[in-house]
Design brief:
This protein is of the alpha/beta class. It has a domain of 233 residues: FAD/NAD(P)-binding domain (3-Layer(bba) Sandwich), CATH 3.50.50. 32% of the residues lie in helices and 25% in strands. The protein contains 13 helices and 21 strands. The strands form 4 sheets. Strands 1, 2, 10, 11, 12, 13, 20 and 21 form an 8-stranded mixed beta sheet that branches. An 8-stranded mixed beta sheet has the order 7-8-6-15-16-17-14-19, with helices on both faces. Helix 1 links the parallel strand 1 and strand 2. Helix 1 packs parallel to helix 10, helix 1 runs parallel beside helix 13 and helix 7 packs across helix 13. The longest helix has 16 residues. The protein is globular. The structure holds flavin-adenine dinucleotide. Flavin-adenine dinucleotide binds next to helix 1, strand 2, helix 2, strand 14 and strand 19.
Length: 421
Protein backbone atom coordinates (compact mmCIF):
# COMPACT_ATOMS: atom_id res chain seq x y z
CA UNK A 1 0.00 0.00 0.00
CA UNK A 2 1.36 3.40 -0.96
CA UNK A 3 0.64 6.75 0.67
CA UNK A 4 1.94 10.24 0.04
CA UNK A 5 2.92 10.56 3.70
CA UNK A 6 3.23 8.08 6.54
CA UNK A 7 3.41 9.44 10.08
CA UNK A 8 4.73 7.08 12.77
CA UNK A 9 3.33 7.85 16.22
CA UNK A 10 -0.27 8.79 17.05
CA UNK A 11 0.42 10.86 20.14
CA UNK A 12 -0.54 14.54 20.19
CA UNK A 13 2.43 15.39 17.96
CA UNK A 14 2.03 12.73 15.24
CA UNK A 15 -1.77 12.99 15.15
CA UNK A 16 -1.57 16.77 14.69
CA UNK A 17 0.95 16.35 11.86
CA UNK A 18 -1.22 13.77 10.12
CA UNK A 19 -4.26 16.05 10.54
CA UNK A 20 -2.56 19.07 8.97
CA UNK A 21 -1.19 17.07 6.04
CA UNK A 22 -4.51 15.36 5.31
CA UNK A 23 -6.36 18.67 5.57
CA UNK A 24 -3.97 20.06 2.99
CA UNK A 25 -4.66 17.32 0.48
CA UNK A 26 -1.98 14.71 1.15
CA UNK A 27 -3.02 11.07 1.36
CA UNK A 28 -1.80 10.17 4.86
CA UNK A 29 -1.36 6.97 6.86
CA UNK A 30 -0.96 7.36 10.63
CA UNK A 31 0.69 4.33 12.22
CA UNK A 32 0.86 3.47 15.91
CA UNK A 33 1.16 0.21 17.78
CA UNK A 34 -1.71 1.42 19.96
CA UNK A 35 -4.83 3.46 19.28
CA UNK A 36 -4.26 7.24 19.16
CA UNK A 37 -3.35 9.08 22.36
CA UNK A 38 -2.58 6.13 24.61
CA UNK A 39 1.03 6.79 25.62
CA UNK A 40 2.62 10.02 26.89
CA UNK A 41 -0.22 12.04 25.39
CA UNK A 42 -2.62 10.02 27.58
CA UNK A 43 -1.10 10.57 30.98
CA UNK A 44 0.05 14.17 31.10
CA UNK A 45 -1.43 16.96 33.21
CA UNK A 46 -3.61 18.11 30.31
CA UNK A 47 -2.49 21.73 30.31
CA UNK A 48 -2.23 23.73 27.10
CA UNK A 49 0.39 26.03 28.46
CA UNK A 50 0.37 29.48 26.91
CA UNK A 51 2.32 30.60 30.00
CA UNK A 52 5.17 28.09 29.41
CA UNK A 53 7.55 30.56 27.82
CA UNK A 54 10.40 29.52 30.12
CA UNK A 55 12.26 26.24 29.75
CA UNK A 56 13.41 23.77 32.44
CA UNK A 57 17.20 24.16 32.67
CA UNK A 58 19.45 21.68 34.47
CA UNK A 59 20.05 22.93 38.04
CA UNK A 60 23.44 24.66 38.06
CA UNK A 61 23.48 26.21 41.52
CA UNK A 62 25.24 24.19 44.19
CA UNK A 63 22.35 24.64 46.64
CA UNK A 64 19.95 23.22 44.08
CA UNK A 65 22.22 20.23 43.33
CA UNK A 66 22.62 19.53 47.05
CA UNK A 67 18.84 19.61 47.41
CA UNK A 68 18.30 17.09 44.58
CA UNK A 69 21.18 14.72 45.43
CA UNK A 70 19.56 12.78 48.35
CA UNK A 71 16.88 11.65 45.85
CA UNK A 72 13.94 12.20 48.19
CA UNK A 73 12.40 15.25 46.48
CA UNK A 74 8.92 15.31 45.04
CA UNK A 75 9.78 17.36 41.97
CA UNK A 76 12.77 15.42 40.63
CA UNK A 77 14.28 11.99 41.28
CA UNK A 78 16.85 9.91 39.45
CA UNK A 79 18.14 6.37 39.11
CA UNK A 80 21.81 5.65 38.59
CA UNK A 81 21.45 3.36 35.54
CA UNK A 82 19.71 6.22 33.74
CA UNK A 83 22.42 8.71 34.69
CA UNK A 84 24.99 6.29 33.24
CA UNK A 85 23.00 5.50 30.10
CA UNK A 86 22.23 9.15 29.30
CA UNK A 87 25.35 10.78 30.74
CA UNK A 88 26.34 12.41 27.45
CA UNK A 89 22.91 13.93 26.91
CA UNK A 90 22.90 15.12 30.55
CA UNK A 91 26.29 16.72 30.13
CA UNK A 92 24.99 18.58 27.09
CA UNK A 93 21.88 19.55 29.10
CA UNK A 94 24.16 21.02 31.78
CA UNK A 95 26.10 22.96 29.12
CA UNK A 96 22.95 24.34 27.50
CA UNK A 97 21.70 25.51 30.90
CA UNK A 98 23.94 28.54 31.39
CA UNK A 99 21.92 31.77 31.77
CA UNK A 100 23.15 33.12 28.39
CA UNK A 101 22.29 29.89 26.59
CA UNK A 102 18.88 29.62 28.25
CA UNK A 103 18.08 33.20 27.19
CA UNK A 104 18.70 32.34 23.52
CA UNK A 105 16.88 29.01 23.75
CA UNK A 106 13.84 30.60 25.38
CA UNK A 107 13.59 33.25 22.65
CA UNK A 108 13.44 30.43 20.07
CA UNK A 109 11.08 28.29 22.15
CA UNK A 110 8.72 31.23 22.60
CA UNK A 111 8.13 31.40 18.83
CA UNK A 112 6.36 28.03 19.19
CA UNK A 113 4.50 28.65 22.44
CA UNK A 114 3.07 31.94 21.15
CA UNK A 115 0.81 29.97 18.77
CA UNK A 116 -0.14 27.07 21.02
CA UNK A 117 -3.71 28.01 21.91
CA UNK A 118 -4.64 29.41 18.50
CA UNK A 119 -3.31 26.27 16.75
CA UNK A 120 -5.19 24.00 19.18
CA UNK A 121 -8.33 26.09 18.64
CA UNK A 122 -8.26 25.44 14.88
CA UNK A 123 -8.18 21.69 15.52
CA UNK A 124 -10.66 21.82 18.43
CA UNK A 125 -13.21 23.61 16.25
CA UNK A 126 -12.73 21.22 13.32
CA UNK A 127 -12.93 18.21 15.64
CA UNK A 128 -15.92 19.46 17.61
CA UNK A 129 -13.96 18.91 20.82
CA UNK A 130 -14.91 22.05 22.69
CA UNK A 131 -16.47 20.21 25.62
CA UNK A 132 -13.03 18.88 26.62
CA UNK A 133 -11.55 22.36 27.05
CA UNK A 134 -11.74 24.77 30.00
CA UNK A 135 -10.39 28.20 29.23
CA UNK A 136 -10.19 29.67 32.74
CA UNK A 137 -6.51 29.05 33.36
CA UNK A 138 -4.71 27.14 36.11
CA UNK A 139 -3.28 27.93 39.54
CA UNK A 140 0.40 27.90 40.49
CA UNK A 141 0.43 27.58 44.26
CA UNK A 142 3.33 28.82 46.39
CA UNK A 143 4.36 27.78 49.87
CA UNK A 144 7.12 30.35 50.25
CA UNK A 145 7.02 34.15 50.08
CA UNK A 146 10.40 34.07 48.35
CA UNK A 147 9.37 31.82 45.44
CA UNK A 148 6.07 33.69 45.08
CA UNK A 149 7.86 37.03 44.91
CA UNK A 150 10.23 35.79 42.20
CA UNK A 151 7.40 34.17 40.23
CA UNK A 152 5.25 37.31 40.47
CA UNK A 153 8.06 39.53 39.16
CA UNK A 154 8.67 37.14 36.27
CA UNK A 155 4.95 36.95 35.51
CA UNK A 156 4.84 40.74 35.16
CA UNK A 157 7.65 40.69 32.59
CA UNK A 158 5.97 37.74 30.81
CA UNK A 159 3.06 40.03 29.94
CA UNK A 160 5.16 41.41 27.10
CA UNK A 161 4.97 37.93 25.57
CA UNK A 162 1.18 37.81 25.74
CA UNK A 163 1.01 35.75 28.94
CA UNK A 164 -1.82 36.90 31.22
CA UNK A 165 -1.91 36.34 34.97
CA UNK A 166 -3.41 37.47 38.24
CA UNK A 167 -1.62 37.36 41.57
CA UNK A 168 -3.89 35.72 44.18
CA UNK A 169 -3.91 35.90 47.97
CA UNK A 170 -4.86 32.79 49.96
CA UNK A 171 -8.29 34.34 50.57
CA UNK A 172 -8.81 34.78 46.84
CA UNK A 173 -7.67 31.17 46.28
CA UNK A 174 -10.28 29.96 48.76
CA UNK A 175 -12.99 31.72 46.77
CA UNK A 176 -11.88 30.01 43.55
CA UNK A 177 -11.41 26.59 45.17
CA UNK A 178 -13.60 26.32 48.28
CA UNK A 179 -12.93 22.58 48.72
CA UNK A 180 -9.15 22.93 48.98
CA UNK A 181 -7.17 23.47 52.14
CA UNK A 182 -4.49 26.09 51.54
CA UNK A 183 -2.79 25.86 54.96
CA UNK A 184 0.93 26.25 54.37
CA UNK A 185 0.48 28.27 51.18
CA UNK A 186 1.10 32.01 50.87
CA UNK A 187 -0.56 32.76 47.54
CA UNK A 188 -0.69 31.82 43.87
CA UNK A 189 -0.31 32.93 40.30
CA UNK A 190 -3.46 32.36 38.26
CA UNK A 191 -2.34 31.83 34.64
CA UNK A 192 -5.34 33.19 32.84
CA UNK A 193 -4.87 32.37 29.19
CA UNK A 194 -3.67 28.78 29.49
CA UNK A 195 -6.20 25.99 29.02
CA UNK A 196 -7.09 22.80 30.87
CA UNK A 197 -8.15 19.65 29.00
CA UNK A 198 -10.44 17.32 30.95
CA UNK A 199 -9.22 14.19 29.13
CA UNK A 200 -5.95 14.56 27.16
CA UNK A 201 -6.28 11.18 25.46
CA UNK A 202 -9.82 12.01 24.27
CA UNK A 203 -8.55 15.24 22.70
CA UNK A 204 -5.98 13.27 20.68
CA UNK A 205 -8.72 10.81 19.74
CA UNK A 206 -11.02 13.66 18.64
CA UNK A 207 -8.27 15.05 16.40
CA UNK A 208 -7.60 11.53 15.07
CA UNK A 209 -11.28 10.99 14.30
CA UNK A 210 -11.43 14.27 12.41
CA UNK A 211 -8.32 13.16 10.47
CA UNK A 212 -10.19 9.99 9.49
CA UNK A 213 -13.31 11.98 8.62
CA UNK A 214 -11.15 13.94 6.17
CA UNK A 215 -10.08 10.68 4.50
CA UNK A 216 -6.94 9.88 6.52
CA UNK A 217 -6.11 6.28 7.43
CA UNK A 218 -5.07 4.98 10.87
CA UNK A 219 -3.54 1.55 11.33
CA UNK A 220 -2.71 -0.05 14.68
CA UNK A 221 0.70 -1.53 13.82
CA UNK A 222 4.08 -1.85 15.45
CA UNK A 223 6.74 -0.40 13.14
CA UNK A 224 9.81 -2.63 13.07
CA UNK A 225 11.92 -0.98 10.40
CA UNK A 226 12.06 2.00 8.10
CA UNK A 227 14.28 1.95 5.02
CA UNK A 228 14.74 4.07 1.90
CA UNK A 229 12.84 2.68 -1.06
CA UNK A 230 14.20 3.57 -4.47
CA UNK A 231 12.21 0.98 -6.39
CA UNK A 232 9.73 3.57 -7.76
CA UNK A 233 10.23 6.94 -9.41
CA UNK A 234 12.49 8.92 -7.13
CA UNK A 235 13.24 8.39 -3.46
CA UNK A 236 10.56 7.13 -1.14
CA UNK A 237 10.25 5.10 2.06
CA UNK A 238 9.38 1.57 3.02
CA UNK A 239 7.82 1.01 6.44
CA UNK A 240 7.79 -2.55 7.75
CA UNK A 241 5.39 -3.46 10.55
CA UNK A 242 4.89 -6.80 12.30
CA UNK A 243 2.75 -8.12 9.46
CA UNK A 244 2.59 -5.53 6.66
CA UNK A 245 4.76 -3.32 4.51
CA UNK A 246 3.76 0.20 3.50
CA UNK A 247 5.34 2.64 1.04
CA UNK A 248 5.28 6.41 0.97
CA UNK A 249 6.92 9.48 -0.55
CA UNK A 250 7.50 11.34 2.72
CA UNK A 251 7.95 9.71 6.10
CA UNK A 252 7.55 11.48 9.46
CA UNK A 253 8.93 10.00 12.68
CA UNK A 254 6.87 11.35 15.60
CA UNK A 255 7.27 8.46 18.00
CA UNK A 256 7.86 10.56 21.12
CA UNK A 257 10.40 9.01 23.51
CA UNK A 258 10.76 5.94 21.21
CA UNK A 259 11.85 7.95 18.17
CA UNK A 260 15.53 7.10 18.45
CA UNK A 261 14.83 3.36 18.23
CA UNK A 262 13.42 3.86 14.74
CA UNK A 263 16.09 6.16 13.34
CA UNK A 264 19.26 4.72 14.86
CA UNK A 265 19.57 2.00 12.17
CA UNK A 266 19.63 4.83 9.59
CA UNK A 267 22.68 6.38 11.24
CA UNK A 268 21.04 8.99 13.52
CA UNK A 269 21.85 9.19 17.19
CA UNK A 270 20.14 12.20 18.66
CA UNK A 271 20.54 12.88 22.40
CA UNK A 272 16.89 12.17 23.22
CA UNK A 273 16.32 11.10 26.83
CA UNK A 274 13.20 10.22 28.84
CA UNK A 275 11.93 11.97 31.97
CA UNK A 276 9.29 9.79 33.54
CA UNK A 277 6.18 11.01 35.31
CA UNK A 278 3.42 9.15 37.17
CA UNK A 279 -0.25 9.83 37.66
CA UNK A 280 -3.12 8.39 39.61
CA UNK A 281 -6.80 9.36 39.63
CA UNK A 282 -9.01 9.65 42.69
CA UNK A 283 -12.77 9.53 42.53
CA UNK A 284 -14.34 12.98 42.41
CA UNK A 285 -16.80 13.61 45.24
CA UNK A 286 -18.70 16.61 46.55
CA UNK A 287 -15.79 17.19 48.96
CA UNK A 288 -12.90 17.30 46.53
CA UNK A 289 -14.32 18.87 43.36
CA UNK A 290 -11.98 21.54 42.00
CA UNK A 291 -12.43 24.00 39.16
CA UNK A 292 -8.80 24.50 38.13
CA UNK A 293 -5.66 22.46 37.89
CA UNK A 294 -3.38 23.37 40.76
CA UNK A 295 0.40 23.06 40.57
CA UNK A 296 2.26 22.96 43.89
CA UNK A 297 5.25 24.96 42.71
CA UNK A 298 7.48 24.23 45.69
CA UNK A 299 6.80 20.47 45.69
CA UNK A 300 6.44 19.99 41.92
CA UNK A 301 3.16 18.13 41.40
CA UNK A 302 -0.19 18.86 39.75
CA UNK A 303 -3.75 18.14 40.91
CA UNK A 304 -6.15 18.35 37.99
CA UNK A 305 -9.90 17.91 37.54
CA UNK A 306 -10.26 15.22 34.86
CA UNK A 307 -13.15 13.18 33.53
CA UNK A 308 -11.63 10.10 35.20
CA UNK A 309 -11.29 11.84 38.61
CA UNK A 310 -8.77 14.12 40.29
CA UNK A 311 -5.51 13.36 38.48
CA UNK A 312 -2.40 13.69 40.63
CA UNK A 313 0.62 14.05 38.34
CA UNK A 314 4.19 13.85 39.59
CA UNK A 315 7.26 15.80 38.56
CA UNK A 316 10.16 14.08 36.80
CA UNK A 317 12.00 10.84 37.46
CA UNK A 318 15.18 10.38 35.46
CA UNK A 319 15.04 6.70 34.59
CA UNK A 320 15.33 4.40 31.61
CA UNK A 321 12.29 3.60 29.44
CA UNK A 322 12.20 -0.07 30.45
CA UNK A 323 12.84 0.37 34.21
CA UNK A 324 10.09 -0.99 36.49
CA UNK A 325 7.78 1.53 38.09
CA UNK A 326 8.92 2.97 41.40
CA UNK A 327 6.04 4.53 43.31
CA UNK A 328 8.18 6.29 45.95
CA UNK A 329 7.86 9.75 44.42
CA UNK A 330 4.10 9.37 43.90
CA UNK A 331 3.58 8.14 47.47
CA UNK A 332 5.32 11.20 48.89
CA UNK A 333 3.33 13.45 46.57
CA UNK A 334 0.05 11.82 47.64
CA UNK A 335 0.78 12.58 51.30
CA UNK A 336 1.10 16.26 50.40
CA UNK A 337 -1.88 16.21 48.04
CA UNK A 338 -4.15 14.67 50.69
CA UNK A 339 -3.48 17.66 52.94
CA UNK A 340 -4.92 19.89 50.19
CA UNK A 341 -7.89 17.73 49.10
CA UNK A 342 -9.61 14.60 50.42
CA UNK A 343 -8.50 11.82 48.04
CA UNK A 344 -10.20 8.68 49.26
CA UNK A 345 -10.84 6.20 46.49
CA UNK A 346 -8.17 5.54 43.87
CA UNK A 347 -9.65 4.91 40.42
CA UNK A 348 -6.86 2.64 39.13
CA UNK A 349 -5.24 -0.13 41.16
CA UNK A 350 -1.84 0.86 39.77
CA UNK A 351 -0.56 4.31 38.86
CA UNK A 352 0.21 5.20 35.22
CA UNK A 353 3.76 6.02 34.16
CA UNK A 354 5.02 7.61 30.95
CA UNK A 355 8.06 9.47 29.70
CA UNK A 356 8.51 13.03 28.52
CA UNK A 357 10.72 12.98 25.41
CA UNK A 358 13.51 15.44 26.28
CA UNK A 359 16.37 17.08 24.38
CA UNK A 360 19.43 18.57 26.10
CA UNK A 361 18.81 22.04 24.66
CA UNK A 362 15.17 21.95 25.81
CA UNK A 363 13.81 22.40 22.27
CA UNK A 364 12.07 19.80 20.09
CA UNK A 365 13.48 18.48 16.86
CA UNK A 366 11.16 19.63 14.06
CA UNK A 367 12.27 19.41 10.45
CA UNK A 368 14.05 17.35 7.81
CA UNK A 369 16.43 14.53 8.67
CA UNK A 370 19.83 15.67 7.51
CA UNK A 371 21.10 12.42 5.99
CA UNK A 372 18.09 11.39 3.91
CA UNK A 373 15.60 13.07 1.59
CA UNK A 374 11.93 13.03 2.44
CA UNK A 375 12.50 11.84 6.00
CA UNK A 376 11.21 14.19 8.70
CA UNK A 377 11.58 14.32 12.47
CA UNK A 378 9.12 15.71 15.04
CA UNK A 379 9.89 14.69 18.61
CA UNK A 380 11.56 15.82 21.81
CA UNK A 381 8.86 18.24 23.01
CA UNK A 382 9.66 17.33 26.63
CA UNK A 383 7.33 18.99 29.16
CA UNK A 384 5.10 20.66 26.55
CA UNK A 385 4.40 18.20 23.73
CA UNK A 386 0.69 18.20 24.47
CA UNK A 387 0.73 22.00 24.19
CA UNK A 388 2.84 22.09 21.04
CA UNK A 389 1.41 19.20 18.98
CA UNK A 390 -0.86 21.31 16.74
CA UNK A 391 1.81 23.98 16.19
CA UNK A 392 4.26 21.22 15.22
CA UNK A 393 1.64 19.78 12.88
CA UNK A 394 1.27 23.09 11.11
CA UNK A 395 5.04 23.52 10.75
CA UNK A 396 5.53 20.01 9.37
CA UNK A 397 2.75 20.46 6.82
CA UNK A 398 4.27 23.73 5.66
CA UNK A 399 7.72 22.16 5.40
CA UNK A 400 6.61 19.00 3.59
CA UNK A 401 4.40 20.95 1.19
CA UNK A 402 7.23 23.42 0.64
CA UNK A 403 5.22 26.45 1.78
CA UNK A 404 6.43 29.52 3.70
CA UNK A 405 6.71 28.39 7.35
CA UNK A 406 4.98 30.25 10.19
CA UNK A 407 8.22 30.48 12.25
CA UNK A 408 11.95 30.17 11.66
CA UNK A 409 12.57 26.43 11.98
CA UNK A 410 16.35 26.64 11.96
CA UNK A 411 16.58 26.50 15.82
CA UNK A 412 14.77 23.14 15.79
CA UNK A 413 16.86 21.36 13.15
CA UNK A 414 18.04 17.80 13.74
CA UNK A 415 21.63 18.58 12.84
CA UNK A 416 22.29 21.00 15.66
CA UNK A 417 23.80 18.42 18.02
CA UNK A 418 26.43 17.28 15.57
CA UNK A 419 27.70 20.87 15.65
CA UNK A 420 28.04 20.93 19.48
CA UNK A 421 31.69 21.27 20.47
C1 LIG B 1 3.54 13.33 33.97
C2 LIG B 1 3.54 14.18 32.73
C3 LIG B 1 2.85 15.40 32.71
C4 LIG B 1 2.86 16.19 31.56
N1 LIG B 1 2.09 17.33 31.52
C5 LIG B 1 2.03 18.05 30.37
C6 LIG B 1 1.14 19.16 30.26
O1 LIG B 1 0.36 19.47 31.17
N2 LIG B 1 1.16 19.87 29.11
C7 LIG B 1 1.97 19.55 28.06
O2 LIG B 1 1.97 20.25 27.05
N3 LIG B 1 2.77 18.45 28.11
C8 LIG B 1 2.82 17.70 29.23
N4 LIG B 1 3.61 16.60 29.30
C9 LIG B 1 4.45 16.26 28.15
C10 LIG B 1 3.63 15.65 27.03
O3 LIG B 1 2.76 14.67 27.54
C11 LIG B 1 4.55 15.03 25.98
O4 LIG B 1 5.53 15.97 25.57
C12 LIG B 1 3.74 14.63 24.76
O5 LIG B 1 2.66 13.81 25.12
C13 LIG B 1 4.60 13.93 23.73
O6 LIG B 1 3.76 13.63 22.64
P1 LIG B 1 4.28 12.74 21.47
O7 LIG B 1 3.19 12.65 20.47
O8 LIG B 1 5.61 13.25 21.02
O9 LIG B 1 4.57 11.32 22.16
P2 LIG B 1 3.56 10.14 22.60
O10 LIG B 1 2.28 10.69 23.06
O11 LIG B 1 4.31 9.24 23.49
O12 LIG B 1 3.29 9.41 21.23
C14 LIG B 1 4.28 8.62 20.58
C15 LIG B 1 3.57 7.46 19.95
O13 LIG B 1 4.50 6.71 19.17
C16 LIG B 1 4.09 5.37 19.21
N5 LIG B 1 5.22 4.51 18.83
C17 LIG B 1 6.46 4.51 19.35
N6 LIG B 1 7.23 3.60 18.73
C18 LIG B 1 6.44 3.00 17.79
C19 LIG B 1 6.65 1.95 16.85
N7 LIG B 1 7.83 1.35 16.72
N8 LIG B 1 5.61 1.57 16.06
C20 LIG B 1 4.40 2.19 16.17
N9 LIG B 1 4.15 3.17 17.05
C21 LIG B 1 5.16 3.58 17.84
C22 LIG B 1 3.67 5.16 20.66
O14 LIG B 1 2.81 4.04 20.78
C23 LIG B 1 3.01 6.48 20.97
O15 LIG B 1 1.59 6.43 20.82
C24 LIG B 1 3.62 15.78 30.43
C25 LIG B 1 4.29 14.56 30.45
C26 LIG B 1 4.25 13.75 31.58
C27 LIG B 1 4.95 12.44 31.56
Amino acid sequence: MRYEVIVIGAGMVGTSIAWHLQKNNSKVLLLDRKLPGLETSYGNAGLIQREAIHTHPFPRQLTELVRVMPNRGTDIRYRLPAILRYHQALLQYWKYSTPASVKKIEAEWQTLIAHCTSEHQTMITASNADELIRRDGWLQLHRSEDTLKIAAALAISDREQGVEHKLLSVEELKVLEPNANFDGFVGAIHWLNSWQVSNPSMLVKAYAKNFEDMGGTIQEKNVKEITPDDSGDGQGWKVVTDNDTYYCDDLVVAAGPWSNELIKPLGYNLPLFPMRGYHQHFKTTGKNTINHSMFDMDKGFVMGPMQQGIRITTGAEMTTMDAPKNFGQLKTVLKLARKILPLEEAVESEAWAGSRPCMPDMKPVIGPAHKHDKLWFAFGHSHQGFTLGPMTGRIMEELIHNKPVIVDVEPFNAQRFSKTK
